[in-house]
Design a protein that fits this description.
The protein is an alpha/beta fold. The chain contains ten helices and 16 strands. The strands form three sheets. Strands 5-4-3-2-1-7-6 form a seven-stranded parallel beta sheet, sandwiched between helices. A hairpin with a 4-residue loop joins strand 9 (388-393) and strand 10.
Length: 474
C-alpha cells in the first residue's frame, strides 16, 4: 500500500496550541543563568525529520484518527490499513544523504544560535538509538549506516557550530502499546483506554517515557541545554486546563513530571525544561505556536513558526519569504521573545535548496543588523505607531530602532519614528552600512536620512545610539 501526500487544495495545518496563561519563575540559580543565556540568542531552528519526511506528508498526524483539515490522509484507504502502512515505512526510510554538518552550517549561516531537534514525534518513531523500542531509525532500513544514531550526529554537528542544544521529545507515543493499546480502537490523539481501570498499563508507559528521556540526557548525547516536551494534552488533571484545552484534553494523563524533572536536572544541571502549555515549574519558557503575542511580555517566551506551511518537508510546500521571517523576528524580539523557525529536511536527509536560500538571505541581514537583535532586551515602549520597533542592549547603554519596509516597495529616502529619540548631538549609526547617518528632530519624530547604495530588497534597517556619555579620556 502506498501512502500519499496531501492533495492540492487541502489546507495546511492551521491549528495553534494555546500558550500558557501563567508563568512560574525557576528557583534554581543555574536554570536562571541558562535562561538568560537562551534569551540572548533570540533566533533558533526546530528540525522535524522522520518517517513523515520520507513519505512527504504532515508530520505524524496522518495516523491520528481525527477529522481536521490539517490532518490529510488517503481517504481511499481503511484507517487501520493506513496506519499499518505508516508503521512499515521503517523498512524503506533510508536517508543515505543525511548530512547534519550541512544542516548546522546552513543554520549558522542563517543566523540561528540554538537548535531543537525532534528526537521523537507523536508517532513514536525514535530518531535516536533507544534500548526501549525497536521502532527507531537505528532498527530500520538505516540500521547498517554508521550514522544510524541520528540524534547523536545532529547534536554533535550543531554543538561544533556553537549552538545551544535542545531535544524535542513527544510525551504521547502512538506506537507504544502502553499509550495506544491494540485491544481498542484509536479514536483521537489521547490514550485509548481508561487509566483508572488499567493503572498498571499506564505505569508502564510512565516508566517507558522516563527511561527514554533518561537515555537522551544520560551523557551519551553530550550536554543538552533544553528538554522541549510536546503533546501538552498529556498532563495531570487540572480544572482550569479542562476549560482551556477542550476536547483535546482528557484530564488524567499524569506522567509524573516532578520525577522526570529531578532526573533531568541531576543528569544535566541547569537544563531548561519546556513542558509546553503546562503552566508551572516545568515550563521554563512559554511557546506560542504559529503566532506572535499581541503585546510585549515580561516572562520568557518563544514563538515557534514553520518556514513553510508544515513543520516537516512536504513536496511543493510554500515557504515564507526572508522579509516575512525577519519582520516576525524583529517584532518578536521587540516584544521580549525568541523566534524558533521550523525547517524540515527531505526524506533523503538533505535540505531543500529553497530552505537554504531563505536561511542565507536571513543570515545576510543579521550579519549586518544583528546587534539590534542578539543580546538585547525589550523596552516598555517597544514600537512606534508605524513600522519601527525598539530594543536595548542587555547592559541598557545602547538603544536600537529597527524600521521594517513593506515587501516589493521602493526604499524611501528617509525614515521617521517617534517614541525613543537620541539625545541632542548623539551619533546615530546605521548597522547595515556601519556608518554614521544624518538625523534631525521633527514634529513627527526622529527623521533619518537613509544611506545611499542600500540593497533594493532590504527588508528592514537598524539604527543604534548610545544613551550614556562615553568616559572621558585622561
Amino acid at each position: 500500500m502506498m501512502l500519499v501526500a496531501v492533495a492540492k487544495g487541502v489546507a495546511a495545518q492551521t491549528f495553534t496550541h494555546g500558550a500558557s496563561t501563567s508563568y512560574v519563575w525557576p528557583q534554581e540559580q543555574a536554570v536562571r543563568e541558562r535562561l538568560e543565556q537562551w534569551q540572548d540568542l533570540k533566533f533558533g531552528v526546530i528540525i522535524h525529520w522522520g518517517l513523515y519526511s520520507h513519505l512527504g506528508i504532515v508530520e505524524s498526524w496522518a495516523i491520528c484518527s481525527e477529522e481536521e483539515d490539517w490532518i490529510p490522509r488517503d481517504s481511499s484507504a481503511r484507517y487501520d490499513d493506513y496506519k499499518r502502512a505508516y508503521w512499515s515505512t521503517i523498512d524503506s526510510f533510508n536517508p543515505t544523504r543525511f548530512d547534519p554538518d550541512e544542516w548546522a552550517r546552513e543554520a549558522r549561516r542563517g543566523g540561528a544560535r540554538y537548535v531543537v531537534f525532534t528526537t521523537k514525534h507523536h508517532d513514536g518513531f525514535a530518531m535516536f538509538d533507544t534500548r526501549y523500542s525497536d521502532f527507531s531509525i537505528a532498527r530500520g532500513a538505516f540500521r547498517r549506516d554508521p550514522r544510524r544514531d541520528a540524534a547523536a550526529h545532529v547534536f554533535n554537528a550543531f554543538r561544533d557550530q556553537g549552538f545551544m542544544i535542545g531535544a524535542y521529545f513527544s510525551k504521547p507515543d502512538w506506537h507504544s502499546p502502553y499509550y495506544w493499546w491494540d485491544r481498542y480502537a484509536t479514536p483521537n490523539r489521547n490514550n485509548n483506554y481508561s487509566i483508572s481501570k488499567h493503572p498498571d498499563r499506564w505505569n508502564k508507559f510512565k516508566e517507558y517515557t522516563y527511561n527514554q528521556i533518561e537515555e537522551l540526557l544520560g551523557g551519551r548525547y553530550g550536554n543538552i541545554d533544553i528538554l522541549w516536551l510536546d503533546g501538552g494534552w498529556v498532563r495531570p488533571a487540572r480544572p482550569t486546563d479542562l476549560a482551556r484545552a477542550g476536547r483535546y484534553y482528557k484530564g488524567e494523563q499524569d506522567i509524573d513530571m516532578p520525577r522526570i524533572a529531578e532526573m533531568a536536572r541531576r543528569l544535566q544541571p541547569g537544563i531548561l525544561l519546556v513542558d509546553r502549555t503546562v503552566a508551572g515549574p516545568h515550563e521554563n519558557y512559554r511557546t506560542p505556536e504559529r503566532g506572535i503575542p499581541e503585546a510585549r511580555e515580561d516572562t520568557p517566551w518563544e514563538s515557534c513558526i514553520p518556514l513553510g506551511n508544515d513543520w516537516g518537508h512536504v513536496p511543493g510546500d510554500t515557504y515564507k519569504t526572508p522579509a516575512r521571517v525577519l519582520h516576525a523576528l524583529v517584532e518578536i524580539v521587540a516584544k521580549g521573545g525568541n523566534l524558533l523557525l521550523g525547517i524540515g529536511p527531505r526524506g533523503d536527509g538533505t535540505l531543500d535548496p529553497q530552505v537554504i536560500d531563505r536561511l542565507r538571505a536571513i543570515g545576510k541581514w543579521l550579519d549586518r543588523n544583528g546587534p539590534a537583535i542578539y543580546n538585547t532586551r525589550s523596552l516598555p515602549l517597544y514600537r512606534d505607531q508605524h513600522h519601527t520597533w525598539f530594543t536595548a542592549s542587555t547592559d541598557g547603554r545602547t538603544l536600537h530602532a529597527i524600521t521594517c519596509f513593506p515587501e516589493d516597495a521602493p526604499l524611501p529616502a528617509t525614515v521617521t519614528w517617534s517614541g525613543h529619540e537620541p539625545p541632542p548631538g548623539a551619533r546615530l549609526t546605521c548597522l547595515q552600512t556601519r556608518s554614521t547617518v544624518r538625523w534631525k528632530k521633527t514634529p513627527a519624530g526622529v527623521q533619518v536620512a537613509l544611506p545611499r547604495g542600500l540593497p533594493a530588497d532590504l527588508p528592514a534597517i537598524a539604527f543604534s545610539w548610545s544613551i550614556t556619555p562615553a568616559p572621558r579620556s585622561k
